[in-house]
């Protein structure tokens, strides 16, 4: 008696790139499935059996693996539910060589064969894999050529001034695939341009628009989500004031072309605003250079991060700092011992240390310059040209350590010894930093009783939890209509209000620990305002209470 033939479970995968025609009773997906089913039936003598589960991706590109039906197919393959994958054509599965290589690797790892009905390929043989790679090369080429053709068509349309979609700007609506002026919004756009000229500052313009209750354009996305309709940010105002669409132009890759739509802003008003914006930008650049140029490019923290000039304004006075790039780039843990230091204090220390009359044997002084030369103004004055020249010719590098400043001087003579008689480097000055005031802490330290350790009451955590519980109770009582009303009355963003509201659903023991200052030391407000699981056990795990005693 012969051995029983093995049954091969066959899954059919179908795909169509566009949604056009999918509403028909018999569409491309049905045609692909019909051909594949007929092929499987022809192989019944080989033990092939159709799996009725549909794996259909309609309206999805073959250039990506992120397709629901494909992911479902791969999940069933991982669960050993499929022996053969059948497609109408290879490019129905994928148009990317890289993705195809990944899929073949997955198929072979699970012992799954791959068959194309119209091309008769089988990946179990090396010749079949080679032929498939050649065919996919052409499929990928076809996709890339189609992409180039679409981009060229888009560019040509923009050169003709046509509207090619995107966010509809304030002042316009779309009718018949063209921008048409919205009279009411156009008045708002003109008002924004005119008020900027009067106020001369985007920050003041932003405050004025908030006072007048002027909001950005409200839009409804295709998903039904409401977008816009809120206060203008400074970035949005800069973009609006620079947007050449209000001059009746269409811009593609930085080049402006006459548009098909009507202009809202007159030439004179537009050019005046652009000149003012450019002048203001030039002043800002000059201010940045003047306010931080004395040590700029030469200063580093003690972990090798460059320190850049920055400033804050308090009570009308500008306070300048040097800040580690690790902090500015969101890598606080990689910052040095001192990540932020007062600029004026540090500049005075450096200029005083490198004065020629103090270090005549170390400072390289050009011919004709006096060793008694000192800054004409107070040391470190950022507007003192002589101080700048002194730093430029004498200092190679400055490193800020926890207790002192290391100043590496430029080499005066190529034959200069690397070490002095006492083993010190003659090119390096080390100047102690003055005693620094301890930073203000947000924590309140509560002494322990009977030898127990003190507790840290974090005011920011306590306030956030209290706010969340208060707002949640107020919403339940109907005191607020929604989160937008809370945000408006408290002068906060609605997104922030929603994050705070999540804290109303913290586990009671977590709330009690925060209120008593017994929370884990690593629990910060930033971490608490992240995703909050609904399950209390998951909350304890996420915020470190599961293992915290």
Distance between the termini: 71 Å
CATH superfamily of the largest domain: Resolvase, N-terminal catalytic domain
Inertia-based shape: extended
Number of domains: 4
Sheet with most strands:
6 strands, mixed
* Global structural class: alpha/beta
Q: Architecture of the largest domain, CATH level 2?
A: 3-Layer(aba) Sandwich
Low-confidence stretches: 362-383, 413-423, 437-441
Q: CATH first level of the largest domain: which class?
A: Alpha Beta
Question: In percent, how helical is the residue content?
Answer: 40-55%
Q: How many β-strand stretches?
A: 21
Mean pLDDT: 78
Radius of gyration: 34 Å
Percentage of residues in DSSP E strands: 15-25%
CATH fold group of the largest domain: Rossmann fold
Please give a structural write-up:
This protein is of the alpha/beta class and 549 residues long. It has helices at 28-42, 68-78, 90-93, 97-109, 126-159, 183-199, 202-212, 234-242, 267-292, 325-328, 343-353, 385-394, 459-477, 483-490, 494-502, 508-515, 525-528, 536-542, and strands at residues 8-16, 48-50, 55-58, 84-87, 113-116, 121-122, 172-175, 178-181, 219-220, 226-227, 249-252, 255-258, 299-301, 307-314, 317-324, 340-342, 395-400, 404-409, 428-432, 443-446, 455-458. The protein folds into four domains: 8-144, Resolvase, N-terminal catalytic domain (Rossmann fold), CATH 3.40.50; 172-280, Putative Large Serine Recombinase, Chain B, Domain 2 (Hect, E3 ligase catalytic domain fold), CATH 3.90.1750; 299-432, no CATH class; 443-542, no CATH class. Helix content is 40%, strand content 17%. A hairpin with a 2-residue loop joins strand 14 (307-314) and strand 15 (317-324). Helix 6 (183-199) packs across helix 9, helix 13 packs across helix 15 (494-502) and helix 14 crosses helix 15. The protein is extended, with a radius of gyration of 34 Å. It starts with 7 loop residues before the first strand and ends in a 7-residue tail after the last helix.
């Amino acid at each position: 008696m012969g051995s029983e033939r093995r049954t091969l479970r066959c899954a059919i995968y179908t795909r169509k790139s566009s949604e056009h025609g999918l509403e028909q009773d018999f569409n491309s997906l049905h045609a692909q499935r019909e051909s594949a089913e007929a092929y499987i039936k022809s192989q019944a003598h080989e033990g092939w059996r159709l799996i009725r589960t549909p794996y259909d991706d309609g309206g999805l590109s073959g250039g990506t693996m992120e397709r629901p039906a494909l992911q479902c197919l791969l999940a069933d393959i991982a669960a050993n539910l499929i022996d053969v994958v059948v497609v109408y054509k290879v490019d129905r599965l994928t148009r990317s060589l890289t993705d195809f290589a990944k899929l073949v690797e997955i198929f072979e790892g699970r012992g799954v064969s791959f068959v194309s009905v119209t091309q008769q390929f089988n990946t179990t043989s090396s010749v079949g894999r080679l032929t498939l790679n050649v065919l996919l090369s052409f499929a990928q080429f076809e996709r890339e050529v189609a992409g180039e053709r679409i981009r060229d068509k888009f560019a040509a349309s923009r050169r003709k001034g046509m509207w090619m979609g995107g966010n509809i700007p304030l002042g316009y609506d779309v009718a018949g695939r063209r921008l048409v002026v919205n009279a009411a919004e156009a008045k708002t756009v003109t008002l924004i341009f005119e008020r900027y000229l009067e106020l001369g500052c985007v920050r003041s313009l932003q405050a004025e628009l908030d006072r007048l209750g002027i909001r950005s354009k409200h839009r409804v996305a295709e998903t039904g989500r409401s977008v816009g309709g809120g206060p203008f940010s400074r970035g949005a105002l800069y973009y609006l004031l620079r947007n050449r669409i209000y001059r009746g132009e269409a811009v593609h890759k930085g080049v402006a072309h006459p548009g098909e739509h009507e202009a809202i802003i007159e030439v004179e008003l537009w050019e005046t605003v652009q000149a003012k914006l450019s002048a203001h930008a030039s002043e800002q650049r000059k201010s940045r250079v003047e306010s931080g140029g004395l040590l700029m490019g030469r200063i580093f923290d003690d972990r090798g991060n460059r320190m850049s000039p920055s400033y804050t304004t308090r009570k009308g006075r500008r306070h300048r700092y040097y800040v580690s790039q690790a902090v500015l780039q969101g890598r606080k843990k990689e910052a040095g011992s001192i990540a932020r230091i007062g600029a004026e204090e540090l500049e005075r220390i450096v200029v005083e240390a490198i004065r020629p009359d103090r270090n005549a044997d170390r400072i390289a002084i050009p011919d004709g310059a006096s060793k008694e030369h000192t800054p004409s103004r107070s040391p470190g004055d950022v507007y003192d040209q002589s101080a700048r020249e002194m730093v430029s010719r004498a200092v190679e590098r400055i490193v800020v350590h926890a207790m002192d400043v290391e100043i590496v001087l430029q080499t005066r003579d190529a034959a200069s010894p690397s070490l002095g008689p006492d083993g010190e480097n003659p090119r390096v000055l080390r100047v102690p930093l003055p005693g620094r005031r301890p930073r203000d802490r947000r924590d309140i330290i509560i002494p322990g009783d009977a030898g127990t350790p003190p507790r840290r009451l974090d005011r920011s955590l306590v306030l956030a939890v209290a706010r969340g519980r208060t707002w949640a109770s107020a919403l339940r009582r109907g005191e607020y209509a929604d989160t937008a009303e809370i945000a408006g009355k408290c002068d906060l963003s609605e997104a922030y209000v929603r994050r705070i509201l999540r804290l109303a659903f913290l586990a009671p023991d977590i709330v009690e620990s925060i209120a008593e200052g017994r929370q884990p030391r690593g629990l910060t407000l930033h971490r608490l305002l992240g995703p909050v699981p609904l399950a209390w056990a998951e909350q304890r795990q996420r915020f470190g209470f599961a293992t915290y005693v």
